[in-house]
Amino acid sequence: MPDPTNPALSYTEIVPEEAELVRYIFQSYVDGQGYRSIAHRLNREGFATKRGKAFSPATIRSILTNRNYIGLITYSSQEGTAKSRSRSIVTGTHEPIIEMELWNQVQELLPAGSKPVDTLHARLFPLSGLLKCPSCGKGMIPSHVHRKRKSISSTISHYYICSDYASHGSAACRAYHIRADEVEQRVGNRLALFLSNPILIEKLMVKVQKKYENEVAPLRERLKRIAGEESTLPKRKLRCYELFEENHIAATELKQKLEDIKREAEKLQMERAELERTVSGFSKQIYPLEQVRQAVENLEAIIRNAAPPQKMALYRSLIQSITIPPDRDMRQAVIHGNAGLFHLSISPLSNEGGEPPEWKKQSG
């Protein structure tokens, strides 16, 4: 428990059930289990962290490096910024729940699990996060599988797996694995084929024009109403003077009415100016057909020939998500475009003959 006046007097309250779980984690690590294996087992058995969340590899590592469990307390000074504050370690008043021998064994093993990722794994995964798990809908992330075979060197296979499963195991989601090479090739081919469709540009232009008209129409309608309201202001102002001359209203009331009309005119003028700027901005977004055609051809060439870093950046500028059917048949996956693809969805190939994929407007 933290001491509000003197951090050095803080103490830790031991909960027997939690202490037993911590000992189990330490012993499991010494016995050869990794962060992920321990986290997955705890989640399968229904355990949760103090905050009620599922265990993850990062949670397990933080437990294995927590000095509180050997009777020490770490606290930071209250002076300076968060980065510059000094940290101190003091002996707490609570009993250690981890023996020093077990603690030292774990600390000696930790560096082996903290080595930099092997350079063989240093490939880019351009669809990381864009692919969505067919079970839970969470983003899919990179995974690597080592295979050792007799008489030949070991091989590494690259996959995309559910991020929730990777962090929390089968208690959170199913163990969906999708081969990285296959899905990346299919998505690249699907996009390139889509962009090479000869009628795509015309459809895009129709869509852009329709989108422009739908967005601008209500603005223009409002501009018409503003013009009508502004046209009545001189007559209303003249009528106020007539009422005053006919002694129907006093001078103070005339002054108030004229000020009200003036404020209304200024408000309408500001709204009209803002709407006109917005309409003008929409007009500038309509590009000539030849310019759009050239841009689409450039995208197709980049998708086919770009290096992985450029391809990754391009995918994120075009794709919002890629949904996968439960059977993981990537031929039936749907690419959902973002603003870069005018929010179009690219549906599966109509047949195996390579006809251009269909496109449709995303719902919602």
Question: Could you write a compact summary of the structure shown?
Answer:
The chain is α+β, with helices and mostly antiparallel strands and 364 residues long. The chain contains 10 helices and 10 strands.
Report what the structure shows.
The chain has 364 residues and is of the alpha+beta class. The protein has helices at 16-30, 35-44, 57-64, 100-109, 163-168, 180-195, 200-245, 251-284, 289-305, 308-318, and strands spanning 72-76, 87-91, 131-132, 140-149, 152-162, 177-179, 319-323, 334-337, 344-346, 359-361. It contains ten helices and ten strands. The longest helix has 46 residues, at 200-245. It is flat and about 105 Å long.
Describe the secondary-structure layout.
Blueprint: H1 16-30, H2 35-44, H3 57-64, E1 72-76, E2 87-91, H4 100-109, E3 131-132, E4 140-149, E5 152-162, H5 163-168, E6 177-179, H6 180-195, H7 200-245, H8 251-284, H9 289-305, H10 308-318, E7 319-323, E8 334-337, E9 344-346, E10 359-361
Taken from the alpha-carbon principal axes, the silhouette is flat
The CATH architecture of the largest domain can be given as Alpha-Beta Complex
The total of beta strands comes to 10
Helix content: 40-55%
The CATH topology of the largest domain corresponds to Hect, E3 ligase catalytic domain fold
Distance linking N and C termini: 49 Å
- Rounded Rg: 33 Å
User: What would CATH call the homologous superfamily of the largest domain?
Assistant: Putative Large Serine Recombinase, Chain B, Domain 2
Mean pLDDT: 79
Main sheet summary: 5 strands, mixed
Query: What order do the helices and strands follow?
Result: HHHEEHEEEHEHHHHHEEEE
**CATH class of the largest domain, anyone?**
Alpha Beta
Poorly predicted ranges (pLDDT <50, ≥5 residues)? 113-121, 350-356
Structural class: alpha+beta
Oligomer: single chain
Number of domains: 4
Count of helices?
10
Strand content: 5-15%
Largest sheet: spatial strand order? 3-7-8-9-10
